């Protein structure tokens, strides 16, 4: 068996599993984040022991290893949440610890308590034991569909009056959950179901909430070899046929509405590059990509920041890009105002951004989409849809239902 070595021998974390450590960290009130990057088979667990949740400016290249999280409403001079990586553990797909990065040392009292608690949980309850029916329907707001469709009609009217070209309108869907609900297990299910997505679970004890997600949309990626990436992701259609089988990618055809919707996001990104006079980018796409039960159109933009001698590009682009027109609209100011006036609820961290900064030298920040918040017994799912002149209100509603299903179909059933 693989053993995890430290300077003083085998690590005290040896043999512990994700669910046990997650649970122990939660009980001890430590902010923590669990994630799996797209197309990788490593899971990282970060636990912030010393400082609680800090706030800082997202100057990504200057940060110590940690996890960043921001609400949708964020001005570029504002601070974001920062979970310092006091402990960062790497797990294999088989749920075995492969590396331990423990800044506090194994003799630290809180670290010892954490390990002891995790170990006692492992002897009490076999991982995987969870009672049935943890996500329970609660009376939906009967008028939720009508209300959402009305906001879409208002948006289409505003677009026809030239107030803006596109706006992304969103809504929520609530289910009840019991204490028996095991978020780390739900995370593991998403990891298995969606290899292309950024799977994350964040515990914010000060807000008394947890966020679980399977995001298909990278916002800024900065690799230690100097490669920067961002993407435009928009346009949606269901990926399954009537029999429930995935339709092959090459059979997917896009309408004018989706092509325009995604092109607006690409143009927005290019405008951001123009603002900093950056012309040396590689553009690939648009291509059809699978995101869970949906297909989207995606264009990837790549820059070699070493060649350009521009190490702070990711921080500069984060400020320029957020909120992109994949979650807000075009032009930004009037569409944002419209969302504020019409949407009728607080998006909170939905369509904000989140991800690891400077972990192993890499930064991977994603848009917080296909996400659910667990708070006070209510699981709130969030989903939005890009509205253009050609939008049909009922179709946009069904699109948000499909987006909620990305998580619900995996974590809502057969517990
Ligand atoms: C706003 C969401 O998705 C965005 C990303 C991809 C496709 C989108 C669309 O087709 O509307 C949205 O712009 C969401 O998932 O809540």
Question: Quick summary of this structure?
Answer:
With 415 residues, this protein is α+β, with helices and mostly antiparallel strands. Helices cover 27% and strands 32% of the residues.
Observed structural traits:
415 residues, binds the ligand C=C(O[C@H]1C=CC=C(C(=O)O)[C@@H]1O)C(=O)O, alpha+beta, 8 helices, single chain, eleven-stranded antiparallel β-sheet, Anthranilate synthase
Write up what this structure looks like.
The chain is built from eight helices and 22 strands. The protein has helices at residues 18-27, 109-124, 144-160, 183-193, 256-275, 313-321, 332-342, 393-411, and strands spanning 5-6, 9-10, 32-36, 43-47, 54-56, 66-70, 80-84, 87-91, 97-102, 135-137, 166-177, 198-204, 209-215, 218-222, 227-238, 282-291, 294-304, 329-330, 353-357, 363-367, 371-375, 378-387. Helix content is 27%, strand content 32%. With 415 residues, the protein is of the alpha+beta class. The chain starts with a strand and ends with a helix. The strands form three sheets. Strands 3, 4, 8, 9, 10, 11, 12, 13, 18, 21 and 22 form an eleven-stranded antiparallel sheet that branches. The model is unreliable at 125-133 (pLDDT under 50). 46% of the residues are buried. The protein has two domains: 5-66 and 83-124, no CATH class; 135-411, 4-Layer Sandwich (Anthranilate synthase). A hairpin with a 2-residue loop joins β21 (371-375) and β22. Ligand ISC binds at residues 168, 170, 217, 233-236, 296, 326-327, 369-370, 383-386, 403. Ligand ISC binds next to β11, β15 and β22.
